[in-house]
Each structure stands twice: as structure tokens, then as C-alpha cells.
Design goal:
The protein is mostly helical. It folds into 2 domains: about 120 residues, Tetracycline Repressor, domain 2 (Orthogonal Bundle); about 40 residues. It is built from 11 helices and no strands. α5 packs across α6, α5 runs antiparallel to α9 and α8 packs antiparallel against α9.
């Protein structure tokens, strides 16, 4: 914990380049080999730092139980994500600022998983109009892009209404106020059924996998 605290202070003060193993070991009062033994290298240290900071932040901010309205909870999750990014711009930059095809930072993966939980609850409530995968990707892209845009602006020039507009546009694109019915078509019914598959024991794992594939096709048509 002392090492991560020292690394976080250095990151906040001087950015990524300030977080050298020599600087961190001096600030934390430990030998450099200790950092290599615990984290492997600077990249491992930065991954551990962002993951620890983000999960700690989430734990402190999400103590309340989910409400009866999963869409409202998605709104709250969006706002929480934005507030983390604005309060911790250097850490957020480590999470999302240097993307590589096929890979993400552990903290970004943790954030993605939290988002997937929110989307899954909306799907199980029958209020998702696109597939869960598409909804997660869209909210993730819009949320992280909005946050990075606001971080890049001078603090006095930030208009947080930009986040509100982006959030509501995405929510309108992926959710519906009506439950699946004949009027919502087969896609809405397929999305709701797919979200509830894990609750049934009537199908084998192979049958569930095949049914998910079919339902995904219907949902994405």
C-alpha cells in the first residue's frame, strides 16, 4: 500500500514519466528490488496502481444497494465514472489514454465489467433494445470519450452538460420504457430471454450456448 500511495502521489504531481522505480522506491522508503519482486516492472506497477485506485473509488462510492430502476442506476454509474476521471485525470489517462488493439489495462477491464453488470440488469428487466454486447460497447465508447474530452479542457471551460447530453443520447439509443411485446418485435424478446438464460436449468450448457447464438442473431438483425 505504501508503494502504491507513493506512486499515486508521483503520478499526480508529474505524470507517467515521474513514476520511475527509483523515484517510487525513494518516496516509499523501500529498495528497488522490492518493487520488481511485487510488480515485475514499471508497467506492472502502473497497472496495479490504476486498478487499486479505481476499485477503491468504486467501493467507496457504490455502497448503496441497486435501486429498482436499472436505467437510473446506469445513469448513476455514468456520473460516477465521469467524476472519477475528472478527479483523477492522470490515472484515467493510464486506463484509457494509450489503447492497444486486443488489450486493455486491468483497471479498464474492471470498469468494463461493472458496466456489463448494469447493462445485464437492464436486459433482464426487458428494457434493452440492442444486444448486451452492443450496449456495453456503446456506453463504454461514449462514456470514456466524453470523459477524455472534458479532461482535456481547461477546468474553467468544462461544461458538464456535455456529459448529460451524451449520457441521455446513449440511454435513449439502447433502452426502451416498454417491456418486450408484439410491438417491440422479436429483437426485444430475444434480448430479454438471453439475459435470463442463466436462471434456467432446463437446458444443458451446450444447448444454452447454441440458444444464445440464435438469440444474438435475432437481437442484432
Amino acid at each position: 500500500m505504501r508503494i502504491l500511495t507513493a506512486a499515486a502521489d508521483l503520478l499526480a504531481q508529474g505524470g507517467r514519466e515521474a513514476v520511475s522505480t527509483r523515484a517510487v522506491s525513494a518516496a516509499a522508503g523501500v529498495q528497488a528490488p522490492t518493487i520488481y519482486r511485487l510488480f515485475g516492472d514499471k508497467s506492472g506497477l502502473l497497472d496495479a496502481l490504476t486498478t487499486h485506485a479505481y476499485t477503491t473509488y468504486l467501493r467507496r462510492k457504490t455502497e448503496r444497494e441497486p435501486s429498482d430502476d436499472p436505467v437510473a442506476d446506469l445513469r448513476a454509474g455514468w456520473d460516477l465514472h465521469l467524476s472519477f476521471g475528472l478527479a483523477n485525470p492522470a490515472l484515467y489517462g493510464l486506463m484509457y489514454g494509450d489503447p492497444h488493439p486486443g488489450s486493455s489495462s486491468p483497471a479498464a477491464i474492471a470498469a468494463f465489467e461493472v458496466l456489463a453488470v448494469h447493462i445485464g440488469r437492464i436486459a433482464r428487466a426487458g428494457r434493452l433494445r440492442v444486444s448486451e454486447e452492443r450496449a456495453v460497447q456503446l456506453v463504454h465508447a461514449a462514456g470514456s470519450g466524453t470523459t477524455m474530452t472534458l479532461i482535456a479542457l481547461p477546468e474553467e471551460s468544462r461544461d458538464l452538460r456535455l456529459s448529460d447530453l451524451a449520457r441521455e443520447a446513449v440511454i435513449a439509443a439502447i433502452t426502451t420504457d416498454t417491456l418486450p411485446s408484439a410491438s417491440t418485435g422479436p429483437a426485444g424478446a430475444a434480448i430479454a430471454l438471453r439475459a435470463a438464460l442463466s436462471e434456467t436449468t432446463a437446458l444443458t450448457m451446450g444447448e444454452q450456448s447454441l440458444l444464445r447464438e440464435w438469440l444474438d442473431r435475432i437481437a442484432n438483425q
